[in-house]
Write a structure and sequence with these properties.
By secondary structure, the protein is an alpha+beta fold. Helices cover about 15% and strands about 35% of the residues. It is built from 2 helices and 7 strands; from the N terminus they run E-E-E-H-E-E-E-E-H. The longest helix has 12 residues, at about 105-115.
Length: about 120
């Protein structure tokens, strides 16, 4: 595992999380979760502020909310968007998360996903 990519397991159906913004300090960082478990990670760790359709993300709708770790502690306020299988650039189911920049927040989000 390196700083930018973390695999959940070693099967052909891996779900990965990777930083998709350049390394360094910036105001916003972006992460992509790609693979068959993307939506379940989003549902486990993300709580939208809006209560409308909170448990069923609409594809391609950017939502504002909180990203939590496994202890239900808020890591950051984020924007998240879900792309279903066959409808993303890679064809995989994926989620993109846009959080505050800085290495620590990004690492905490990655760690929450790969736990």
């Amino acid at each position: 595992m390196n700083d930018n990519t973390a695999n959940k397991n070693n099967s052909d159906d891996d779900t990965i999380v990777a930083v998709i913004t350049p390394p360094g300090e910036g105001g916003i960082a972006a992460l992509r979760i790609a693979g068959s478990q993307s939506l379940s990670y989003l549902q486990k760790h993300f709580q939208p502020i809006s209560k409308r359709n909170k448990n069923k993300p609409q594809p391609f709708v950017m939502r504002f909310g909180h990203f939590f770790n496994d202890k239900k502690e808020v890591i950051d306020e984020v924007m998240a968007v879900y792309m279903p299988y066959g409808k993303s650039y890679t064809g995989l189911e994926q989620v993109e998360i846009f959080c505050h920049g800085g290495r620590q927040v990004v690492m905490l989000i990655q760690d929450a996903i790969i736990q």
